[in-house]
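Input record (Table S2, row 346):
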Amino acid sequence: MGQEPIFIKDLPLEALETWVQTIGERPFRARQIFRHLYHRVIRSWDECSDLSKAFRTQLEYGTRLHAVEVVATEDAADDTRKFVFRLRDGSLIESVLIPDPPRLTACVSSQVGCALGCRFCLTGTMGLTRHLATAEIVDQVVHMQQDAGPGRRITNIVFMGMGEPLANEEALLPALNILMDPTGFGFSHRRITVSTVGLVPQMARLGRETPVNLAVSLHAADDDTRNRLMPINRKYPLAVLMEACRAYPMPSRKRITFEYILLKDVNDRPEDARRLVRLLASVRSKVNLIPFNPHPNLPFERPSEERILAFQEILQNAHLTATIRQSRGADIRAACGQLAARMVSS
Ligand code: SAH
Ligand code: SF4
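Output record (S-adenosyl-L-homocysteine complex):
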């Protein structure tokens, strides 16, 4: 053979059909492989008794089945489970499995670190090490499904782990394709959410190429505050971002979720809520309020419960759907914005 093995989870079904033909197999083999990889979530090619021994040997030597390996798991008091994965270059990333019956949500990472430096986010303090490959994104879900066991299927995927998914769309789009393929996991687009800080050109492309749900991390309803919290706002200020949201193609009944972290005395005042109402007036939206998860290295505080509820009430009185995100897994630092695995020399 002599060639470097390929990462098989990098390939959407069509690309896999092409690849199996290069090693002399018929295209339908790709579907069989897809079912093994993403429906049965196999751990080894030996489990695929419907493939000939010779073909399995080719797969064994010509491909790499796993792109990430689990190095640790940690359980929170609320049953949220955090996974630490090691990549081939030694980098570490984290993902979280959140049971919320009947749902089981996997929160997935898209990059090692993040370049965008939002001031309230621990991942943002790390800087960017590198993008994840498609296989590294998909394999997080495979490992979490293996861990959950055959009787418990993952029902929802959110790209809200480490990194900015739309800064890595070259790997993200094929990963979405694989996750939605009915031959494998078969996730409906209604059950996948991509969260972005608002990279405007990439949002337009996402909307053109997939029907998945979009969540926009807003966190402030005026440019001054947003500039201070999120450097990206200088590149795509609110007027530009909101225009992109209005232009976002949405299948009927869908709405954009706007995420809004509540930071004490920074963006949690009644006038901030009223400004948010005005900003969202012309978009099909729902708001997800996220009380800040504090950390000693981050210079913000969480507002009081009263303040949080008062903010929500102003939105609701203006007929906006506004939910408060219950932070899960805080005791194991698996909560929003707390994922910051570091590279370790093993
Ligand atoms: N980069 C993308 C997706 C990952 S962050 C984005 O920013 O949207 C996922 C969510 O966690 C975002 O809404 C982010 O703003 C939020 N988050 C980051 N730090 C947080 C913190 N300290 N407390 C609460 N939520 C936080
Ligand atoms: Fe990056 Fe999102 Fe964190 Fe901002 S909030 S630094 S975009 S991961």
